[in-house]
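Trying the structure run again after the queue cleared.
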Amino acid sequence: MGKLKLSKTTVERLQPVEGVQAIYWDKDITGFGVRVSPGGSRSFFYQGRLNGRAKKITIGKLGRITAETARKEAKRIASMLELGQDPTRKKEGKAAGSTFGDLLEAYVELLEQQGKVSAKAVSNAISKDIETAFPKLWKKPANTITLDDCMDIVGSLKDDGKPRQADKVRSYIRTAFSEAINARGDVNMPASMRKLGITSNPARDMRKVKGSSNAKDRALSLAEFRAYWKHVQGLPEPKRSLALLHVLTGGQRQQQLARVTLADIDRDAPSLTIWDRKGRRAKPRRHVVPLLPEALEAIDKITGGGEYVFSCDGGLSPVHMAYFNDQTKGICAAMQEAGELEGEPFTAGAIRATIETRLIAKPYSVSSDVLAHLLSHGMGGIQQRHYQHHDFFDEKLDALQKLHGMLTQPRGKVTAIRGRKRA
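Done. Tokens:
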């Protein structure tokens, strides 16, 4: 792509690229550019030379500064470099006084550098729940932040009846300090993180917020699950095929499903590939999910001229998590009205928990090892990385066949489907 004028409208229209930071250059100001992370955040920077040596300077993120402000700052930086002056010297001289806000913004930058799609959500939460809610703490030197300061932030969210969000923010603060400590000896970390000079973690001893994961503890009974499946069958397209595909792929994480493209579908050995980026892994792990014939039919019904599989506009854009959640909420309400709900209302995340709970129980008795591979959790250990090379494809296929039989055959009878083609 050629150079663009990085105005507010142009920058907002730039699309993220899966797995990498995309860089766009301004056509008028040489050296002025913007980085677009896989998660969608946009950071302005200037790249030039000071006394013959390359120098790259971060200006700020769109939202915290405007595109017009970034352009003015780029011109100022360019002028200083031309005069042989270092625009960052004063800032670096105050490294010991880096603020709590500097630390949290550096943590977001680290997530973006690692290609984490969660970076945008983390940035939004930090901005809303810390910067806006606690402006004095945001400006406080990072190395003077105490456990009590952290408790004020997290406790406020918990007291407002938001235990899940409170625990997320607790995790962000704790991890930000931990990464800053590690960055002191890691040249691979962003410069913004290495220069913070953090030596202790005041949030280290903060306990997990009770009630933060209650929604995920809900698993539908077999009767409820079959009722859910019945309601899915009655949905209009593309809702029906999207919900059906979510179940028949084993209840994979919604954010990961949203990133699946047609290029990730293998029709010869029917399967879809998910590039699992969760956790602290620097590179995504390849996660292959077998596809039943019914799943392939659903894919054919919802795909079109675009690239995305889990889409409600023919593949032009991926569905948002809110789409899945609203759809599940509607089915849950219909089940409650029909007297089919045996327990508390449930969320989309409960479908994943239900699939694992029902498959591990008799008469299906799918092993926890197979379920771990099917649902892609707990796969980062030494044994998995270095010693276990079996891909569990046929075992995962068998589990999905049992899942389909559970929903369509009252007695749980499973009809065998041949495995994948082998070379």
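Strands lie at 22-25, 32-36, 42-50, 53-61, 265-266, 271-276, 285-290. Worth checking whether this holds up in the mutant runs.
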